[in-house]
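Re: weekly structure request thread

Next one in the queue (208 aa):
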Amino acid sequence: MALFSTAYIGNIEYYSTIVKMQSCVIELHENYIKQSYRNRCRIVGANGVIDLTVPVAKIHGEKQSISLVKIDYDTPWQKLHSRSIESAYRSSPYYEHYIDLFEPLLRAEYATLIELNSAWHTAVMVALNIGSAVGVNTSFTSEYIKEVVDDYRYSISPKKSFDAERFAPYYQVFADKMAFEPNLSVLDLIFCMGPEAVIYLNDTKFQF
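Done, posted below.
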């Protein structure tokens, strides 16, 4: 069993690991962790890397189960994310092929972070053409699991460094202006490589 945290439009490392492990069990009973990929992702625009963060309702007390974390809609963060994604990728080779799949998720109001992330995960799996039909299954924990051999809940984190050389360069929209940015949100890979994205994920060097 390969165990993952929930993620907001997970990065290349996240989906490369899922593809290689041929399974994805998402933890629903851990305590919410701030400043993690659970509510943020990274894309690259004309001026560099952009962090897109989903605001969550104020958590009372020190701990709250990830399954109970609610999304805060007091600010128009969806419009910001939508505009940022369009600006970053509208000139990418495969933007028009996939935006109809993703755009509804940028307008829908999900009550909880888990619901939003699950919707994005399902859409990404469709875009990558992976899922139960090819043996990559997604399930959810029924209770908190303390230990498991293949545990990626905390190793895939913006607070942890990664070996950039593991990620082979591919064409990015602003390649003429800036150096290649590795391990962004899988959206970058999908919009830039289209059907070959899953091949890239399979070829990415596996190391934890």
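The CA atoms of residues 14 and 23 lie 12 Å apart. Residues 2-203 form one domain.
Next request, please.
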